[in-house]
Each structure stands twice: as C-alpha cells, then as structure tokens.
Design a protein that fits this description.
- The protein has 165 residues and is an all-alpha fold.
- It has one domain.
- It contains 5 helices and no strands.
- Pfam families: Anthrone_oxy (PF08592).
- InterPro entries: Anthrone_oxy.
- This is DUF1772 domain-containing protein.
Length: 165
C-alpha cells in the first residue's frame, strides 16, 4: 500500500517538475525572442538605415539569415513549451501566450516574406529609391513581430507572477 502511494507521489512530483520546466522554457524563449526582436527595431535597423541605403541593403542579407534561424527556434521552443504548460496546468492562457509568439512565423511567411525576397534580390542594388522604401516598410512590419512577442512575454510573466502571489 505504501509503495503504491510513494509511486503516485513520484509521478505527481515528476509532472510538477515538467510543468515548471515547460513554463520556464516558454517564458525564457519568449523573453529572448522579444529582446532580439525589440533590439532589431530599436537599435539594429535604425543603425543600418543611418549607414546609407547601399550599405544597409548589403548588411540586410547576413543579418536576416542569422536572425531567422535564432528567432524561428525560439518561437517554436516557446510555443511547444507553452503547449506542455497548458496541457499540464489546464490554463489556456499558456496556450494564448504561446500562440501570440508562434504567430510571428505565419505573419513573417505571408506578410514580410515578399518584402524580404525583394530586399534579398541582388538587382535591388540598382534601385536604391525602391530599396529605401522596402527597408522602411520592413522596419514597420518587423515592429508587428516585436509587438506580438512582447504580448507573449507579458502574458507569460503575468502567469508566472500570479503563481507566486
């Protein structure tokens, strides 16, 4: 009898650990994504634009490729962890927070990608007026990613803080 109860306690403890770990990973991944995204909007892209359109266009491609790998990984990790947190806690707000962050992926694919493709086209270097318009548009579109990720992070921080109160 006691062995069975100890076994149940261990399973319950393991689920609690998994729940806490999932919430930590969801929040941490969202925080890292948000920090990177806001940094791009407030620091990197404005600095890129100050260098002049030709250098900004040249710098865009390597920056874009590096950021893509990092940000997709963080968005997916956060969403999957939020999904686990939702399933283990039955609190749909974890799913909402994860959904806000993972929404940047289809938003990027459907809304930002046409602009990205034009900016990555080597022929764009021959039309600097158009390149400037596209880089400016890209900055505005990227701000949506920053807003979605900030909303995700605030949701997760609220949920984590709520548990401690």
């Amino acid at each position: 009898m006691y062995g069975k109860m100890a076994s149940i306690d261990k399973v319950s403890e393991s689920r609690g650990t998994l729940d806490a770990l999932a919430k930590l990973i969801a929040t941490l991944s969202s925080g890292l994504f948000t920090g990177a995204s806001v940094y791009i909007n407030l620091v990197e892209h404005p600095a890129r634009m100050q260098t002049g359109i030709r250098p900004a266009l040249t710098e865009f491609a390597p920056s874009y490729h590096r950021a893509t790998v990092m940000q997709v990984s963080l968005a997916v990790a956060s969403f999957l962890s939020a999904l686990i947190a939702w399933r283990s806690s039955s609190d749909a707000r974890w799913l909402i927070g994860g959904g806000l962050l993972v929404a940047v992926i289809p938003f990027t694919a459907l809304v930002i990608m046409p602009t990205n493709k034009k900016l990555l086209d080597p022929a764009m270097a021959n039309d600097l007026d158009q390149a400037e318009k596209l880089l400016t548009r890209w900055g505005r579109l990227h701000a949506v990613r920053s807003a979605l990720s900030t909303a995700s992070l605030l949701t997760f921080l609220f949920l984590v803080g709520e548990r401690r109160a």
